[in-house]
Amino acid sequence: MNQTFNIHRFTLMLRFDVAEKGKTYLFTAALLLALLVLLMLPVGLSTQYNNMKELLHILALFMIVLFGTSLYTSSAFTQYAAPSTGIAAIMVPASRIEKFLSALLLNLVFIIPFVIIFWKLHYGTIAYANAHLPAGGPKFNRIPEFVLQYAFQYYFLIHAFVFLGSLYFTKASYLKTAAIVIGSFLAIGLLHIGLGYYLTSFPSKLVAFPITGWSIWLYPDADAGRRVTEFYQVKLPENVYTFIQLFPAWIVLVLWFATYLRLREKEI
Predict the structure, then answer these.
(1) How far apart are CA 243 and CA 160, in angstroms?
(2) Which residues have C-beta within 8 Å of that of residue 268, sequence separation ≥ 6?
(3) Radius of gyration of the chain (CA)
(4) What is the DSSP letter of 226?
(5) pLDDT category, 208, cuts 50, 70, 90?
(6) Close Cβ partners of 123 (under 8 Å, ≥ 6 residues apart)
(7) Which pLDDT band, with edges at 50, 70 and 90, does 223 fall under?
(8) Which of 8, 25, 108, 142 has most Cβ atoms within 10 angstroms of its Cβ?
(9) Contacts of 163 (CB under 8 A, 6+ apart)
(10) Membrane-spanning residues where (predicted)?
(11) CA angle 195–198–202, rounded 5-degree value
(12) Is residue 104 classed as helix, strand or coil in its secondary structure?
């Protein structure tokens, strides 16, 4: 098979993937959107402030957006999981790059609009609910912008890992990928926090996320001569911060390239 890229073959490959997996993709997308709306509605229908309803939006961010949507991505290369379907996938008259780009495009067509829908629904329902709450009473709070920015960076990282895992593992790919991703994130997070506590001489409280600055609290301590709570922020230089913010995007590109290399191995 000619391994050069051809736009006509690529279009046919897209149509083939949609015909093969379209119903599965559509069902998964519809289910996730329905769950997202269900978690958003209680705030939108509220006539008074309720902290538990507000927490549903945070639950939607982590359980539906960050992890639930990865179920969609996990089916990107399911045709290579079993020998019977794998042979048929290899025999499809399209180059490896065309097969890879077709799977990637169908994945991006879902995950990019989904995160935008979450953003719009979150801000829209909060604004609508607050407009109908009693004047002078407590209002619903939006998820802080820096939290959303941080979550969206890892949103694409998670999908890139699952995209690779759907092709790398032949059995229970989603579970194996999830175990590796969660284990890696926990290990990196614990290492980062431990290093932060060590370098700041073990303060009373430290909030430190990877690729962000550190927030440090020193509570009153008579032995240390502190009469009031002291608070410090350790921020990265602007140029370093910009570079680190782009680091997740670089990892995503590396994972996509690794997926393409794995596809080449499968096709040989």
Answers:
(1) 20
(2) none
(3) 23
(4) B
(5) confident
(6) 142
(7) low
(8) 25
(9) 73, 76, 103, 104, 107, 255, 256, 259
(10) 24-43, 55-73, 100-119, 152-170, 177-199, 240-261
(11) 125
(12) helix
